[in-house]
User: Fold this.
Amino acid sequence: LFLFCVVFADNNSTSYIGSFKISVNVDFWLHTGGNYEYILVEKRGEKKNVGFIQLNRPKALNALCDGLMKEVGQALDAFEADGDVGAVVITGSEKAFAAGADIKEMQNRTFQECYGGNFLAHWNRVSTVKKPVIAAVNGFALGGGCELAMMCDIIYAGEKAQFGQPEILLGTIPGAGGTQRLTRAVGKSLAMEMVLTGDRIGAQEAKQSGLVSKVYPVEQLVSEAVKCGEKIAANSKLVSAMAKEAVNAAFELTLAEGNRLEKRLFHATFATDDRKEGMTAFVEKRKASFQDN
Amino acid sequence: MMERTGIFHHVCRIKYISPPQTAGGGSASFCHVLVHGQHQQIRTDRRRARAASCSRSNFSDVQSAVMAFLCRSAASLLKPYRAAPAVLSAARLYSSGGNYEYILVEKRGEKKNVGFIQLNRPKALNALCDGLMKEVGQALDAFEADGDVGAVVITGSEKAFAAGADIKEMQNRTFQECYGGNFLAHWNRVSTVKKPVIAAVNGFALGGGCELAMMCDIIYAGEKAQFGQPEILLGTIPGAGGTQRLTRAVGKSLAMEMVLTGDRIGAQEAKQSGLVSKVYPVEQLVSEAVKCGEKIAANSKLVSAMAKEAVNAAFELTLAEGNRLEKRLFHATFATDDRKEGMTAFVEKRKASFQDN
Assistant:
């Protein structure tokens, strides 16, 4: 398979149609759903431009184990490289987005193993994706599940979604950004309450507090998230990545420096064809046709 | 008897100069309590009594003689009361309510594991004077040292949590005095407590009162609570974190409006804007806050302190650095017994028994 990867690396080439069935490259294979143990992967949307990752460990309520997080990383790598995909949706089942990390995996670890092995280091792959990622959260998003959702750019919640950071009840603390992102999202009082008591909040409170931006009925959630992905994918991928970088910088820089970064990125959009196309189309009162260039 | 009382009072006043951390100081304060006739059901703590008697040997001869005299007399005074031996730790005394002028202090909850501080200056609507803030600091020191206490609740009266700082105290200060004397420096004691602190706000939390509430980790509000920063109406600005914590909590527009106009917001708006996390009916507020404290106190104190440190770091570090600190603290929990106990209990489907270790 690796060999085929090297030879037939170009997805868009039509001259390989005859041999396409036997010469499938790894990227294509990975994101048409093959070879994953813990997740399901496909492309959704009318134009198949929304990457779709569904966590698939129903017996464990999608508890995040190391293997699952590695596969999510692989699927994201594939979608990053895929020129068709403009946005990614991550979801779980109707009952649980991800009900935590796998405790059995962690139970007997020592501090030395954690520090030396940089435990959880690659779990933040979701937060380093350049394309916009939408978390569609139905049911439980607890502990690592809540942290995974918060690493995404946008969270849509089903009406029965529950968010929480119950690590304190296990004698530990959130380890994948929970204390940082939750506090920035919902404020100190609610974040302290959730982190110190382990109590959960529902979808409505999550929306009011700023953690999620939309709440939908359970059965409509995923399709609405894909629709949002399609809206995003209709824009320039290049410029979307710059927009996302600027918004994320708000959590890293002072306001003055953040404004400076944003201005530099804004100026940089004037070096792109897509910016010229977009503004020209506006002036000419027609639909823009972005080329991600 | 009166004369002896006067002597005790006098001697105790001399002895008791600074917040007593040692047993010796505790003895003096203990006498002070008796002199003022306060009944205290003072429980014996053998551990503390032993510790107390050990530290006595650090005293000078004169002090020892005075202590011995006081304690003998105190012992005889105590006979009518079914009370403890003469030597008590200051921590126990302070966390069981003795010797405060501006606040009431006790331990609440079924297991008496929630420290409880009630601001008690009703005529001044709990206006925060220097003495009150010093006492709050002492009470918090005591609760920090108290191994039973897992969380602290601070509240005021039903009418007012704290309706501001004491203006009379501040009226004639000069800039030189403020800067040189580091005015308000110790007012942030609440924000340096390692144990979780819950503010139960009924009624007015204005100016310094609002700032005091915001220094706490969690704010529960009664339905009639009002939050505001009216310092601008007095020709000054918030000086104990109001502009910083309010803005981070409720956003720029509302914070600017409150700070620049002095207008107040009610409990519901405070909840919607993220300043408080729960709103309760006035008469249920304090018990609900204590319940929250009990939930927190049921967890490992050691790990709770780490969790609190991580959440607070969100306001000090960039997201990337905050994530790094959190990860280091998370790794560090694997060096604790409590983490292993907690996860093992989860896997074995039983209740965890944390040892704060």
Observations:
- Strands of chain B lie at 103-108, 114-119, 151-155, 160-162, 197-201, 204-206, 218-222, 226-228, 264-266, 278-280.
- Chain B touches chain A through 58 residues (CB under 8 Å).
- The CA atoms of residues 109 and 287 of chain B lie 9 Å apart.
